[in-house]
Give the backbone structure.
Amino acid sequence: MSLLKTALQRGEFAVTAEMAPPKGCDFSEQAAVAELLRGKVQGVNVTDMQSACLKASSLGLCIRLKQAGVEPILQVTGRDRNRMAILADLLSAAAFGIDTMLALTGDHPVVGDCKGAKPVYDLDSVGILEMLRRVEETGLDCGGNALDSKPEFFRGAVVTPVYEPVALQVAKLRRKVDAGAQYIQTQGIFETESLKRFLEAVDQAQIRVPIMAGIIPLKSAGMARYMNENVPGIAVPQDQIDALASAKEAGRKPAEVGVDMAADLIRQIRAENLCPGVHIMAIGAEKNVPIILEKAGIQ
Amino acid sequence: MIITQRKPMEDLFAMLEGVQKVALVGCGNCAAACQTGGENEVREMKALLESKGIEVVGTLVPEECCHKMLVKKELKALRDSGAQAILGMACGDGVQTVADNAEVPVYPANDTLFLGQIERVGIFHEYCRMCGDCVLGETGGICPVTRCAKGLVNGPCGGQKNGKCEVDPENDCAWILIYKRLEKLGQLHKLTGPVPDRDHDRMAHPRHINLRGKKV
């Protein structure tokens, strides 16, 4: 059974870490980082051409991680594949023992690095979840034809807590859960107030699903400012940007300050019991994840 | 309204390379409204081509260039014109309709862009993608298939910023528009509940309609 599912069901504080496949055909760096994460996280969440930039596939790296004994989470977007190709990948993943997935709609090719590529979006995040749930329940494929064997996945989706109007985001979350999402991870959050407001709105809507907080360790003030301006749903508070900007004066590296901030935030989320776990998006600095977890007091 | 835009002149000259005598066929309907194929544009095109040494031996502006019988009839006027090619100044449908009835090559002067709303003279917005599976009843009369860059039918992606689309910040997020409209209509419940997958077999091209009940 999915390691993440088990942890969430047992009420353990679950941790997943995001990892991007290489822009090339050499997985050795990713495999080395995965070794550092082994036993420390309940899943390594492998991106599916994040930001619509061409990389090796999520499925490929997931298989590599699985063979190395590190639990992968297959990210599946609707941007590049129609329902047949998506289901084919999910069946292949299941054949390799991959049992946890995350459905996303996917950034549009226009914002990525192969701008002329055809956007597919046959299914969006909700459609992917709905199709997979139906396949699991009925053993029938997306055309209603019998499969020889059926997959079983712990199905995830994402949500953006900093969103206006929040009711629209909550309505989409409800559709995801109704379509079969069994866990949720959030866009990166940087303080708990906006997270709390969102979780209250979800609670009031009587949506019951584990929501893991998305954590992005900041590397510099420039990165924080860039994300605030360019990444939807990201809102780094000014005091954190200031702290990163003045790190050098205090004789520290900004990335170290960012690691401390991430650890503090995780500690707070856990102490206040806001979320049953966290999803860490280290964006290329995955080697810091074990340090963050140690500083956050997570064994 | 079928919205068209004229191709760059260098593209037209490239298509017409080696042609000394050409005829122009515009369209009195959509292309006229788009200022790409009405009487004025045909006259301007004639002058432009002739300034480059291409003789324009005939011009036509059928009332509707997508009307096969009408176009067939009007094209007779060009039969003895000596035109070596026709420049079609209509939409892709109009150009094909002319080509179906012509003995010489027909080249498109325009790119056909979308089915659009005319906000006012000369301002057009894409409103319908002609998907064949209308969802407007569920979305407050705002089409997410067309006006959401990803064509999402289940709600917004995470890519909007201040109500604008990640793909083109000039565009409003269709789902925020839909939310506001549904709120005004007292139909916010339509944001939840199952949405059937889009049936793409209904959109297999080319599509035909026959209201006459017999083979044409």
